[in-house]
């Protein structure tokens, strides 16, 4: 072997090691901790223009993060807690989402907005939409706040506002302009999504007292049980008015709060609702196509 040729071998080895080091630094900076996350970021498929409406209740443990997609458009309702923000963002990216038309924050509690920064750093966000309260302003618009530093376009919204998401319509039902509550949970945005005659209701963490203000709303195909299945929510009066076919509950496995409460599950059984839970089934997906609603569990799509 010539001396010149033998020099190439350590040179190549050095170059390969440098490339590996650069890749590891890039992955670390991007918060990519697994091969799945890397391939999701690399190969995430584009959003389908013909997919219809899809709701993903992402398994974020004790918290809530919902992704809605409709014919090439996407929105989120909450971003989950900070401790699984990377997984939430990877899930959204892997669904082909590169831009959110709307990012609704139901209320400024950490189990709903802890993943905000990671989502912001992963996809483009047209607007952050949330109810007005001092805690929201401290997070999003006060000088020096996160939203101010990042240049987030924030709108404080109340009942009566409507948004379109592809061919779906999202209507804000609560809170009313100027509403204040002792419990921030009761200020949660309540959103009604409608597509091809199918109606889905998202209730954040509101209590039964606020739920009663929504009545009469009539038949709802899919309900997100408020406050992770807490006994102070999902009241009998609401269920009798809406008689939901399907109820999604977002809660952590063996959580400290006993969510979902046994009495809530009893009330849901009494109206023949089919219950799906992230603590038991992981990420839940509901799909509406040609006016038909179906639920997919146990796999990430
Ligand atoms: Zn919550």
How would you characterize this protein structure?
With 301 residues, the protein is of the alpha/beta class. The chain has 11 helices and 17 strands. The strands form 3 sheets. It has an 8-stranded mixed sheet. A 7-stranded mixed sheet has the order 9-10-11-12-13-14-15. Strands 4-6 form a two-stranded parallel ribbon. Strand 11 (190-195) and strand 12 (198-202) form a beta hairpin. The termini are far apart. Bound molecules: zinc ion (ZN). Zinc ion is lined by residues 64, 109, 111-112, 205, 228.
In round numbers, the mean pLDDT is: 91
Strand order of the largest sheet: 8-7-5-3-2-1-16-17
What is the number of beta strands? 17
- The CATH C-level name is Alpha Beta
CA radius of gyration: 22 Å
CATH superfamily: Ribonuclease Z/Hydroxyacylglutathione hydrolase-like
Q: Provide the domain count.
A: 1
Alpha-carbon distance between the two ends:
55 Å
Which hetero compounds are present in the coordinates?
A: zinc ion
Strand content: 25-35%
Secondary-structure-based class equals alpha/beta
Helicity, as a percent range: 25-40%
Task: Classify the fold: give the CATH topology.
Answer: Metallo-beta-lactamase, Chain A
Low-pLDDT regions: none
Task: Please identify, by name, the CATH architecture.
Answer: 4-Layer Sandwich
Could you give the order of the helices and strands?
A: HHEEEHEEHHEEHHEEEEEHEHEHEHEE
Shape: globular
> Main sheet, how many strands, which sense, barrel?
8 strands, mixed
């Amino acid at each position: 072997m010539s001396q010149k040729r033998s020099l190439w071998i350590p040179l190549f080895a050095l170059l390969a090691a440098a490339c590996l080091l650069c890749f590891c630094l890039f992955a670390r900076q991007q918060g990519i901790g697994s091969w799945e996350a890397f391939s999701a970021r690399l190969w995430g498929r584009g959003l389908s223009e013909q997919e219809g409406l899809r709701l993903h209740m992402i398994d974020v443990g004790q918290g809530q993060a919902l992704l809605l997609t409709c014919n090439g458009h996407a929105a989120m309702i909450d971003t989950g807690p900070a401790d699984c923000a990377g997984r939430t963002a990877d899930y959204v990216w892997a669904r082909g989402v590169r831009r959110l038309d709307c990012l609704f924050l139901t209320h400024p509690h950490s189990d709903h907005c802890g993943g905000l920064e990671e989502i912001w750093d992963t996809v483009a966000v047209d607007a952050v939409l949330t109810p007005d309260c001092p805690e929201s302003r401290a997070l999003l618009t006060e000088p020096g706040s996160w939203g101010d530093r990042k240049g987030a376009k924030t709108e404080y919204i109340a009942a009566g506002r409507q948004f379109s998401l592809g061919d779906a319509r999202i209507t804000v039902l609560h809170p009313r302009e100027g509403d204040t509550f002792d419990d921030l949970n009761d200020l949660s945005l309540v959103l009604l999504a409608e597509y091809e005659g199918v109606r889905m209701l998202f209730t954040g963490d509101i209590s039964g007292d606020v739920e009663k203000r929504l009545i009469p709303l009539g038949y709802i195909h899919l309900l997100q049980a408020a406050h992770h299945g807490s006994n102070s929510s999902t009241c009998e009066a609401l269920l009798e008015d809406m008689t939901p076919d399907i109820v999604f509950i977002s809660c952590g496995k063996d959580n400290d709060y006993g969510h979902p409460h046994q009495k809530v599950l009893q009330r849901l059984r009494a109206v023949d609702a089919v219950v799906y839970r992230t603590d038991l089934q992981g990420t839940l997906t509901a799909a509406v196509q040609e006016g038909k609603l179906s639920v997919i569990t146990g796999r990430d799509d």
